[in-house]
Every structure is written in structure tokens, then in C-alpha cells.
Model the fold of this input.
Amino acid sequence: MFLISNLLLGVAKILSIALNLYMWVIIARAILSWINPDPYNPIVRFLYNITEPVLHAVRSRIPASFGGIDFSPLIVLLAIVFLDNVVVSSLISMAHRMAG
Done:
């Protein structure tokens, strides 16, 4: 059980780091949308390529635009915080119960 507990802790930490990194990528994308950067810049293209599938999925399911403002990044950020608080915390809790 000790090995499975450590495996769950490792998965929880990696998932938490991945969710936090993606949260910052979404924030960077939202900030870039305010300043209208060069679309041929490799960094801008990377940010758009990594975030657009998720943002498009949210936009297609939920009308996330009110008054010309796109709220899909906010919805994705809320989903990331929810996943971090529920899934990661549950994995950590399960690992601690298995260990002790």
C-alpha cells in the first residue's frame, strides 16, 4: 500500500503543477487579447495553439460572450481551480488514508 500511496501523491503533485501551469497560460492568453500582439510571433502562436481547443470547446457549449467580452477564459480558470481543489485534494487525501 505504501507504493500505491506514493504513486497517488506523485500523480496529485504532477496534476497540480500541470493545472497551475495551464492556468498561467490562460491568463497570459487573456492579457494578450487586450494588447493585440503580432499573430506571427512564435510565442503568441504557441499560446493560441495550446489554449484555443479548450476555449473553443467552452465557447461552443456555453454562450460565454456578453457585450463583446469573452468570458470563456474566466470559465476555464474556474474549472481549473475546481479541479485543483477537488481532484488533487481527493488524490492527496486518498494517498494519506492508504499510507496511514
